Amino acid sequence: MASREMKELPPKEVFWHDEKMHQIDGFWYLDSLMESIAAFRSQFQPRTDDILLTSIPKTGTTWLIALCHSILHRHDNEEEEEDSLMKMNPHELVPTMDISYLTDQVQEHLKSDHTTTTTSPRFLHTHLPYSCLPEAVRSAGSSCKLVHVARNPKDTVVSMWHFYNKIFGSETTPDVTMESAVEGFCGGVIPYGPFYEHVVEYWEESRRRPEKVLFLKYEELCRAPNEHVRRLASFLGKPFGSDEDGDAEVEKVLWRSSLNRLKELEVNKSDEGLELAPIIPKSSFFRKGTVGGWKNYLTPQMAHRIDLLTEQKLQDTILSL
Ligand code: A3P
């Protein structure tokens, strides 16, 4: 997505109320982010120990950021309640490259790790699909690590519906209906979509290069958090001990990163926008966090339509969502 390609933008769609999106190399991007995405792709230089978190919006990004941060900083000299998550929204602690690459804050963040220790690796996030990541990140010689979180499509579409109505809506614009949201989702016309192609790219790369890409599922994290947090910590090179102390550390990381804790912190309660993305209220990342909550929002026909598509799109993989 060089600047030349951005000037010759191919197929165009309207997303939500009147946000414009363009499709490049099979994936959809909001027009408002094209410049930042292009700069990230062409200018970003990974370090060997960088950790890049990846996700489709609303699949568990905030949780993943909080977990990784708490794992990497668990030995920092902090009181139980006094970690950095208490002072900063997770999305300000770990910026999203494709949204705010060109800001001064992100450029500062890239110069060093701005959190509490200088020994921690750089720790970043992106919603870009694997095939659209900077070449230097994907290349065989690059040793930076990627962690991807995926979520079942029906809970994802419902979470998107709440989120995008909140950020793109206003008091005078009626909410986009769930029918339209499902229509857009199934047609692949969502930011960074199509959903299935995006998730399959990371899944396949995690199978090709398991030492480079860790693939996590939101539902699995909910079902067996201790097991998957241990897996995540080992992948990040910071394994927990298998003794009681290790178990206690896992519990602390889970508690620090939990939805119940984060949503009650003053720093996350505000309807004020993120400094790096002012249209996104800090509170908008925290809602119910349930598995199967879609049952309260999707009609049986909508659910059936998504199930059929999931089956069709994943039939050549052993991935289930
Ligand atoms: P729901 O809308 O289903 O409640 P993202 O972080 O990718 O934007 O995803 C947001 C979804 O993750 C929301 O789901 C939100 O409630 C949930 N979430 C946010 N923080 C979480 C946490 N610490 N633990 C579990 N789920 C969390």
From TrEMBL:
Q: Which organism is it from?
A: Linum trigynum
* Keyword check for Membrane: no
The terms under GO molecular function for this entry are: sulfotransferase activity
Asked whether the keyword Transferase is assigned, the reply is: yes
What the entry lists under InterPro entries is as follows: P-loop_NTPase, Sulfotransferase_dom
* Top EC group: transferase
What residue stretches are annotated with the Sulfotransferase domain? 49-317
Q: Which UniProt keywords apply?
A: Transferase
What name has this protein been given in UniProt? Sulfotransferase
The family note in this entry says: Belongs to the sulfotransferase 1 family.
EC number(s)?
2.8.2.-
Highest taxon of the lineage? Eukaryota
Which Pfam families does the record cross-reference, listed alphabetically? Sulfotransfer_1
